[in-house]
Structure formats: structure tokens, C-alpha cells
Amino acid sequence: MVTPFPLSPSSPFPSPTKFLRSFSSITVTKASPLQFLHCKRLLSVSVTSSFQNPDSDSPPLPPKVQTFWQWLRDEGVVSSKTPARPAVVLEGLGLVAQRDLSRNEVVLEVPKRLWINPDAVAASEIGTVCSELKPWVSVALFLIREKLKNDSPWRYYLDILPEYTNSTIYWSEEELAELQGTQLLSTTLSVKEYVRNEFQKVEEEIISPNKQLFTSPITLDEFFWAFGILRSRAFSRLRGQNLVLIPLVDLINHSPSITTEDHAWEIKGAASLFSWDSLFSLRTPVSVKAGEQVMIQYDINKSNADLALDYGFIEPKDDRNGYTLTLEISESDPFFGDKLDIAEANGLGETAYFDFVFDRPLPPSMLQYLRLVALGGTDSFLLESIFRNSIWGHLDLPVSHANEELICRVVRDACKSALSGYHTTIEEDEKLKGANLDPRLEIAVGIREGEKKVLLQIDEIFKGRESELDELEYYQERRLKDLGLCGEQGEIIFWEPSK
């Protein structure tokens, strides 16, 4: 696998938990460098000796990986002194330390000429026709086209890439059925539909009109393959790089025990004996003993749903369990315009998304937005223009008994409705977790159990608020106190004129 990169608006892939919000852009979370290899000569690599894993008890490397390593040696990227090498590990392939490595020590350095990214596409034969495409789409076409060419400069790298992962985008209908009721299922189906639409568009606008460039047919399955490779293996933390695949570095695996994401650097250095270039510098975030895997943290902030969609694994940690609650101001609300103005003035909109994480506080601004949406009746005076600059501060605290009761009921009803959509209980999932499950079923069980835990916790929070409704202090009481007309116990203080 490869180093992940953070989801951001400029990223080329759809963010799992946010995908349904917009199809206009895609976000990638992890990345390795996708760039054009400026290699003018035809590839001719021969393995002169069998490459052995550092641990003599571990399985030998597949021939294609040995050939890949030899190619990197011929390119001057690695040598016998390189601190880490490919090895067969529990995850499949990984990078294993050849000697003890201290924290922040350089493990690998890969020159920019070997990266695969939009610049590589621009420098290739299809660069002109792909110039207006989304970056990830252009790189996906480039990857597929290079994979179909026997003389591709990246032949030996492409040969070691997996045909699929356990990402939910590759699951069968039967496997997806195990995600019934989960947000991950709806997100996965939306992502798959998005990719299909992008393929249809690029096939009509780019592939079919340019058959002299795309001499071999490109299928939807191949497009999904490229999408999955980019989603799981691309880096985006390098300077000016939103999407880049980097051969060899993307073999590095994820460790949940690593709590820092400081591992990727772009530096200037010697690309060969007589030239300098930008280098991708991989450094180990923790100290590593010889024979151990060099690993990184893909993304501290990703939920298990994100990890399952992007990489095809989850972590057995409660703080990776999440659920996104969607709230909106109804267009039929008589105060729709006023409420929308207030929401937008405070960084929200007609629809707002709040990401819950297990055992963490309520998302910021959620209660204010809920109270705003529920405002009505005698509370609607707060929507008047004289309160426009102060209303968000008022909404930070309970407005009225009726308003607070309504938001509790709405949230609890939403949780109960969501919980009724799963076909198993938490107890049934717990029993399954003890069995020797297929990796994909294990992911499904973990996802649906995690979502249910979060929903139950949200319900419990608002159940607790319901039980305290009679004890809360509301706007009118606070206002009377500010005016000195209400005592500390809530009693009304009557003013008597002096005689």
C-alpha cells in the first residue's frame, strides 16, 4: 500500500463521508507519485541474482518484484546500501528495514523523473487531449494506456501493482449486502456511479475521438482499477502535488500505532551523477529495528468507513467509528429565507453535515444549527433583523423548552430510524467478530457495528438532554436575569415604586 494524503477540496477523489454532498470534485486520501518517467531508452532489465528477503525464514519475493527492484537499481534509485527493501509481509508486500533505523531517518529517495502525476500525462502522447480533464481522470487514462503497452517505461512498476484491493468499490453484490443500512454502502454505490459517469464521459469525449492514441479498447473495469490504484496509493502532501504515484514508496504499509503523519518530504538532491532534481524523501516516523517493517500512518482523521473505501481495511479502534448526520432547513419553512441567511453568515448552509466520532463531544455548531432549524412559534422573534448580529450567540444556549424538546425528539427519531435499517444487532456482530471471517466480511461487520455504536451514543446524549429539560435555563429567563428581573432560582422579581 501507499502513503495516504489528506482529503481536501483540491484533491482529485471523492471523500467517503462527504461524497454524497457533491459530485463536482474528487478527493484522494493517500497517495503515491504518478508521473511520467522520462526514460528515452527501452527497458531492458535482467535479474542477475535472486533477491532474497532480509529474514531468511520469510517467503522469497515474486519474480516480478525482483525484476522491479533490479530496474530501480539500474535507474540509480536504490543500491545494496538502501535502508529498506521490498519483502513479503502479512499485508502482502511491504518495506522491511535492512538495519536499525532511528526516528526521522531517510528510508528512500525517489527522483521526480520517476513520479507519475498530471505532469507526466502532460508530457506524454495523450497530454494534449487530456489537458482539460480532472487530474485523476487524466492520470487514470495514462496508467491504463501504459499498462497496455509492452514497452512502457513503467512496465516493471505496473507489473507489481495489484489487480484489486479489498476496497468496497470492488465488492460483489452479495458482499455489499453485508453493509445493509450503513452509510458506507450508500457512499460506495455513489462513488461507483460517479466513476461510471466519468468513464462514460471520457469515453465519448476523449477515447473514441482519438483512437490513434488509444489503439487498445479501454474498459470500465480497467477504469475502476486505475481509480482504485490512485485512491489507495497516491500522495498529495508534496509541494504543488495534488496527485502523485511514487514507485517503491507506495509499498509502505499502515500502522495504527503511529500517531504522526510526518513522513513525506520533497527535497532537492542528486538525481544522478551529473544532475539534480526534486526528490521524494520518505522518512520513518518512528525508530525501526533491522528486519522489521517500516510503516507510516495513512491518515489519523479518517473513519473506518474512509479506510474501507480507500484502502480496504479497518482498525479495531472505537475512535475510528463515525457517523455523519445530515440536517437541513426545509424550503417549506415560513422562515426559510431568514434561517438560511443566518446559517450562511455562520459558515453553514441550507444543508449541513455533522461528523460524529465515537466517544467524542458533539460536533461544533451542531446544537446552534439544530436550534435554528427548529425555531418557530413564539421563539421566531429571534429571527428579526435586530437580533441578526447576535442570534448565533443566543443559539449557543437553549432557547426555549419547546425548541429544545423538539431538537431532542428529531435527533432521537433519526437515530432510531437509522438503527432499524441494519439487518443485525450489535450483539450479533460481536459474536461474528470472534469467528475466522473473510477479510471483506470482517470489514462489513466492523463497519456496521461501529456505526450502530455511534448512533446509540448520539441517542443517549439527546436522551440525557430530554431528561434535563425542566432544569435548563432558557432565553427568556436569561434575559430577565440580565435585566435584574429574575432571581438565581428563577423567581420573578417584582419592582415596586418607592413611596
Please give a structural write-up.
The chain is α+β, with helices and mostly antiparallel strands and 499 residues long. The protein folds into two domains: 19-296, set domain protein methyltransferase, domain 1 (Alpha-Beta Complex); 316-482, Rubisco LSMT, substrate-binding domain (set domain protein methyltransferase, domain 2, Alpha-Beta Complex), CATH 3.90.1420.10. The protein is 34% helix and 10% strand. It contains 15 helices and nine strands. A hairpin with a 5-residue loop joins strand 5 and strand 6 (276-283). Helix 10 crosses helix 12 (401-419), helix 12 (401-419) runs antiparallel to helix 14 (439-467) and helix 13 (426-433) runs antiparallel to helix 14 (439-467). The longest helix has 29 residues, at 439-467.
Distance between the termini: 85 Å
- Count of helical stretches: 15
What is the topology, as strand order, of the major beta sheet? 3-6-5
The CATH architecture assignment of the largest domain turns out to be Alpha-Beta Complex
Secondary structural class:
alpha+beta
Reported by name, the CATH topology of the largest domain is: set domain protein methyltransferase, domain 1
Number of strands: 9
Let me know the average pLDDT. 85
CATH class of the largest domain: Alpha Beta
State the helicity in percent bands: 25-40%
The fraction of residues in strands falls at: 5-15%
**CATH H-tier superfamily of the largest domain:** set domain protein methyltransferase, domain 1
Number of domains: 2
Q: Any idea what the shape is?
A: elongated
Describe the oligomeric state of these chains in a short phrase. Answer: single chain
